[in-house]
Amino acid sequence: MITFGVAWFFSRRESLEEYFLNARKSNVGLLVCSHVATVIGAGRDSRCVVAESARTGISFGLASVSAYLTGALILVWLLPKIYNEGNRHNITTIVDYFFARFGGSAGKLAGILQLCLLAVWIAVQAAATASLASILTGLNYQTALWLAALCTIGYTTLGA
Prior knowledge:
Layout lengths: L1 H12 L2 H6 L6 H12 L6 H11 L1 H32 L4 H9 L1 H34 L3 H19 L1
Helix pairs in contact: 1-8, 3-5, 4-5, 6-7, 7-8
């Protein structure tokens, strides 16, 4: 409920661009921290890595952490360039960046890939949230999954 309240309060005081892009005031360090905080969710949670490592062996944990750290380092290296391009061309999404930098075909492909990625990411987050809610509250998993979806939709609606 606190998250809903914060989203509602701040989304009503700012324009859409200010809300989603922080009025382009964030420096590169804050953008990296924001990305890391976004990515480290239920799908990248250390409990998931530990549980899967226990089930399949230590290689999963090592591969998972190595892949994440490699991706984070690549992001740290590329983010200043993307950030500067975004400010120079008033780009708001990674798909906009691909359109501006590489043209229509690359932009369309980036959009399709982004939609696929987001669909999988939402499914992972919803499943993890439902599992946790089911364990903590004793709710049936299916009910918890519907509640997780409704909360996500409500939060998103309030934010926009």
